[in-house]
Design brief:
alpha/beta, 8-stranded mixed β-sheet, 6 helices, 33% strand, globular
Length: 412
């Protein structure tokens, strides 16, 4: 390692997961060409890595916020490119960070272009849970989840985070921003063992949130993606107290399982045709068009009556989603609300983004094993566009909740 070359992460080598870091290199020769690398390991020990070649300026410095990558995992000026472009050597692997306790560790290094000799390195610890945020597992009545509460007495706005399978990532990152967040999974059992969904169980979670002493918003928000999306729509349509609903890459109808509420079925299931799954050479399938048409006469009973909702909606759809036809479903919901004279919604679509829209600055995932399908699926998207969409949507979600869950004390 060269004693002259310095690799720095600004403002600090320790940061929150959804915060960018400025990567700089100093002490190189004027116009020297070097390779920057990033590496991380997921909880299963799979290594994810990226590399990009840069040319130092006349002062022997490189700043990823100003200087372009010449080649490698990405090209051009991309301050966080080394992070979002990390990929595993093996196919269909995801660098998912679902627990909130341990940081996501990314190791950056600088190497001579020709010989690959290590010149400098630095480690970035990216934390999901901030100082003073409390984490409490909850099992009440018919639901279970994890509650995240910001430091202080509040009052804070409340958000229910609906995940298809349990994940704490988005919930604790929102708690860092000044929201009381309860993370709940749609499936707490193997999907094959679940025969119907009970909206009452999620209503219990909404009521639990409203009873927390730190909560000051008059109602709660709901954030969701994929199968969680139609559950969120149904909460907004049928359950009092849901004031703001974020729907990300879901469907406009109740998908896969009948929905029950107050001991009765309220929505039948929109089913799917697995023969429409498109196999690919990678071994993953493309399932974008497997769902039956929700607007067909025989399927209209599965549509969620979102026009009944008293609260507001934020619809977000990725135009290159290969798992759901999300943009079409979003357009159908916008048209439905307009036809009912409603203006309680906003919508945003992202060109080049895929299904797996998450909080920003995680490695882009083109495909991975799908717990419901039982095999790898294509999520879609192009890495650069997908990463930019995650940055934009994450800010949009926070602004939306702050606007519609008015509360005196929220923090940046």
């Amino acid at each position: 390692m060269s004693s002259q070359v310095r690799l720095r992460l600004l403002p600090s080598a320790r940061c929150m997961f959804d915060d960018p870091v400025q990567v700089t290199v100093a002490g190189l020769r004027s116009r020297q060409v070097v390779t920057l690398r990033a590496k991380s390991t997921n909880k299963k020990g799979v290594v994810f890595s990226s590399s990009a070649t840069y040319r130092a300026d006349g002062s022997g410095e490189i700043d990823l916020e100003r200087h372009p990558s010449l080649r490698g995992s990405y090209v051009g000026v991309e301050p966080m490119g080394l992070v979002w472009s990390m990929r595993a050597d093996a196919l269909h692997k995801i660098c998912q960070k679902s627990d909130s306790i341990n940081p996501h560790v990314v190791k950056f290094s600088v190497h001579e272009e020709e010989e690959g000799r290590l010149l400098a390195e630095a480690t970035n610890e990216r934390f999901l849970i901030g100082d003073g945020v409390s984490r409490r597992p909850v099992k009440e009545g018919n639901f279970q989840g994890v509650l995240f509460t910001p430091p202080g007495k509040g009052p804070f706005p409340a958000v229910l985070d609906l995940n298809t399978f349990m994940s704490e990532k988005r919930a604790c990152l929102l708690a860092n921003k000044g929201f009381v967040v309860l993370s709940v999974a749609v499936y707490n059992d193997k999907p094959d063992n679940v025969k119907q969904i009970h909206l009452d169980h999620f209503e219990e979670a909404v009521n639990f949130l409203q009873q927390q002493t730190e909560v000051g918003s008059k109602g709660v928000g709901v954030v969701s993606r994929s199968k969680g999306g139609d559950i969120a729509l149904s909460l907004a349509a049928f359950v009092p107290g849901v004031e703001a609903t974020v729907w990300i890459n879901g469907c406009c109808a109740n998908v896969a399982l009948p929905l029950h509420y107050n001991k009765s079925q309220i929505l039948p299931a929109l089913m799917f045709d697995t023969s429409k799954m498109v196999p690919t050479e990678s071994g993953a399938v493309m399932g974008k068009y497997v769902l039956h048409n929700p607007l067909a006469e025989e399927n209209k009973a599965t549509l969620v009556p979102i026009e009944q909702a008293k609260g507001h909606f934020l619809f977000a759809a990725a135009e290159d989603d290969l798992n759901w036809d999300s943009k079409a479903y979003m357009d159908q919901m916008v048209e439905r609300l307009r036809c009912h004279g409603k203006n309680n919604f906003e919508s945003v679509s992202y060109l080049g983004a895929g299904h797996y829209l998450d909080p920003p600055y995680g490695p882009y995932c083109p495909s991975s094993f799908h717990g419901f399908v039982g095999k790898p699926v294509l999520w879609g998207g192009e890495p650069r566009s997908h990463a930019a969409a995650e940055v934009h949507l994450w800010k949009k979600i926070q602004e939306f909740f702050r606007t519609h869950l008015s509360c005196d004390a929220t923090t940046d």
